Amino acid sequence: MQKNTKKMGLMAIFFALSFLSFTVSAQEDKSKRPSPPATTTGKINGKSVTVNYGQPSIKGREVWGKLVPYGEVWRAGANEATTIEFSKDVSIEGKTLLAGKYGFFAIPNADEWTIIFNKVPNQWGAFKYDAAQDALRVMVKPKKSKSFNEKLMYAVNKNSVSLAWENAEVAFSVK
């Protein structure tokens, strides 16, 4: 009887570990997140640009000044920090930024945004954001978007990169 009890105990542990392993691997499927990962790529003057971000939806919430507070560093997406990568050196709003992958952050305000390229691309949100690691900061003006955007969307345009969400659009020039 003790052998069977021991055997059943080992089987229970095996099944529990198998279930736990399955649960962990299911959680790693980032496409199932409420804000799934998204990627936008394109070329500007022969330079490849890639933006990786978590794509939140509004879901009836007020975004600017509420869900995304004014005057605070925002990860410019959801989940992990948004990243932006340039294949060659670029000029952002007239300022040089070396080729590479950056954490992409913003400080939104009603009339002006600070766009931030941070040397630490792989981080969770903006919780450990360190301004001392900024490679570049530029100021840009938001504008009303042409249409309502339920989901956060990035675009690589002819001479700029833009993000649009809710009724706002923010772009910065890239040369």
Give a description of the structure.
The chain has 175 residues and is mostly beta strands. It folds into 2 domains: 1-32; 33-173, no CATH class. Helices cover 15% and strands 46% of the residues. It contains 1 helix and 10 strands. The chain has one helix at 2-27; strands at residues 37-44, 47-54, 78-86, 90-92, 95-97, 100-107, 113-118, 134-140, 143-156, 160-173. The strands form 3 sheets. The chain has a 6-stranded antiparallel sheet, with no helix packed on it. A hairpin with a 2-residue loop joins strand 1 (37-44) and strand 2. The chain starts with a helix and ends with a strand. Residues 10-26 have low confidence and may be disordered.
Low-confidence stretches: 10-26
Largest sheet: 6 strands, antiparallel
Distance between the termini: 77 Å
Overall 3D geometry? Answer: globular
- What are the secondary-structure elements, in order, as H or E? HEEEEEEEEEE
Side by side, the strands of the main sheet go 1-2-3-6-7-8
Q: What is the domain tally?
A: 2
Cα-atom radius of gyration: 21 Å
